[in-house]
Amino acid sequence: MKLIVSNHKMNLTKDEILSYIKEISEIKSSNKLIFCPSYPYLSFFDGKNYFVGSQNVSDQKMGAYTGEVSASQLRSLGIQYAIIGHSERRNILNESFELIHKKVKICLENNIIPILCIGEKKEEINQKEEILTAELKSAFDDIGDDRKNIVIAYEPIWSIGTGLVPTKEEIEETLSWIKKYIKDNYQVDCKTLYGGSVNEENISNLKEIQSIDGYLIGGASLKLNKLKQMIDILEV
Ligand code: PEP
Predict the structure, then answer these.
(1) Which among 6, 45, 143, 184 could bridge 221 via Cys, Cβ 3.0 to 4.6 Å?
(2) Is ligand 1 within 6 A of the CB of residue 156?
(3) 201 catalytic per annotation
């Protein structure tokens, strides 16, 4: 079973999200669908035939943190997943390794599965392993047995929203490198997703990648016709 994670980012109005929800409630899939809308819409998603995730979480438990949302609040809404360390948050909002580590930890403490995003910038392609090692190490160090639940999404930053996708062979190599790194250093098998310009045209090709446990999809998942096509392709 593959994970199909839809990251809405900061898109869709209330009316748009309500009609989106109506349509997804009729989707049947043997894969695991996870929708990550903006915070205000989370409780509109009933999660009957899919799972619901947030796009972020506070690193703090509770209290005077205006504008933040805690892991326990998310859990109380039935949220099962949270995207952590997305490159947009790392780069635009300057989220540090330390902050991301705290967010991963607080998710696990609240039974929320963190979808940890890692990936290199275009100019870092030649140091990809060093970049990924630093991102993985800072997130995984000092996490207890629950670390086996962390889902890792490899998203080359140069691929997000650009239409550029690494070759199948490159993705296979990177995902198997990540799996091996985690197994060797933390003795667990983690699920590895690919994200970055996944769409209805390239998903049949990406489906052939052996080490892929799923997809993190931004832009193309906002359009229901595209999302449904991708779900159908992954079904067969
Ligand atoms: C993302 O937001 O994580 C993402 C992969 O976006 P897109 O599919 O639009 O490249």
Answers:
(1) 6
(2) no
(3) no
